[in-house]
């Protein structure tokens, strides 16, 4: 079977490709049944992409990718075996099924193993405007990357070097099917343009960048805009100065605010909970945030980066609150982790689908004014987060704010706290959210954190 055809090579045949993958999935399930499996599931995918990179006006990389694969899992009662292949020919499919069955026969029973409940399978399947192929060839991609980098380098004479610019475009089709009779498919494109620049000289050099990412080319920022924004951000970081060590308000930019939501998701995910490796054990129904705070999952957003009618097990997704009134409403569970915890799946096998945080503040400028004096964090470094205790300590860079105005850049500092306390101390969520992530949040202002300034 051929890989996904690029739009440049001919007409869009994504639906035909999906139909072919559905046939592969059905054949794999038939083979599993014939070998005595009591349950089985299979995922098939094909994807293609083009990525180019340039630096200082010269082409550095041109990479075209074409991948495909089948991953399947069989169950013999509550014994499980999995195998995968990139070869979709019949003999390879047979060998892969036999390998999975052999593995299952030698594993121990797992009471939580098995497909999700058949009554939970999605019955309404639809698309979410996520398919926007770009007929991009290498020459055009290089031209775009060069224009992006040049716009940044021309923005200011203090931009003396570059880490390069990149352009990427990809398309993927996939099918999930299981022995309950469920068959679901998806198709998605993704495109990006990015640039990283270096400002200043010698030990005073500073690096920063910018990128745009979307499912549709029409939603990307112009390459020149990306390059100029990369230059602005690099220049803004010049001449960093120390800040006092102490406890103060900290405002996470929208890009950095996503990481706080990520720590929450990690703590309330089924795997961490049943392994008892979470600082939010037994926190269901607990007030973790201020009473105005809310996070809602919205899996049906048009052009949403994680929109889907079903999760990785075929379970129907649904709009629901993760946090409402500051109270944790549910965990994030697939069927396996739900069984381990004695609960029901939340339709989140494979992750969450488009989270949106309720805003109670305006744009970044207004949040800076409201903060008055404190630290704006625009970069985080290191992995100093303890998922069991919630202790938080990370390197950071950003800007010092006085009287609601940015006065100078800051780097080489550490911000610290405990995530439970940090969640309770959220003072505001801004309305200016970053569209490059499935976590839709504006900047987040914490009333206080410990900041260790550079010596």
Q: For the largest beta sheet, what order do the strands appear in spatially?
A: 3-2-1-4-5-6
Write down the domain tally. Answer: 2
Sheet bearing the most strands, described? 6 strands, antiparallel
CATH class of the largest domain: Alpha Beta
Task: Tell me what you see in this structure.
This protein is α+β, with helices and mostly antiparallel strands and 455 residues long. Helices cover 24% and strands 35% of the residues. The protein has two domains: 7-234, PmbA/TldD fold (2-Layer Sandwich), CATH 3.30.2290; 239-259 and 359-452, no CATH class. A hairpin with a 2-residue loop joins β13 (391-402) and β14 (405-418). α3 packs parallel to α4 (223-236). Residues 1-9 have low confidence and may be disordered. Keywords: Hydrolase, Metalloprotease, Protease. This is Metalloprotease PmbA.
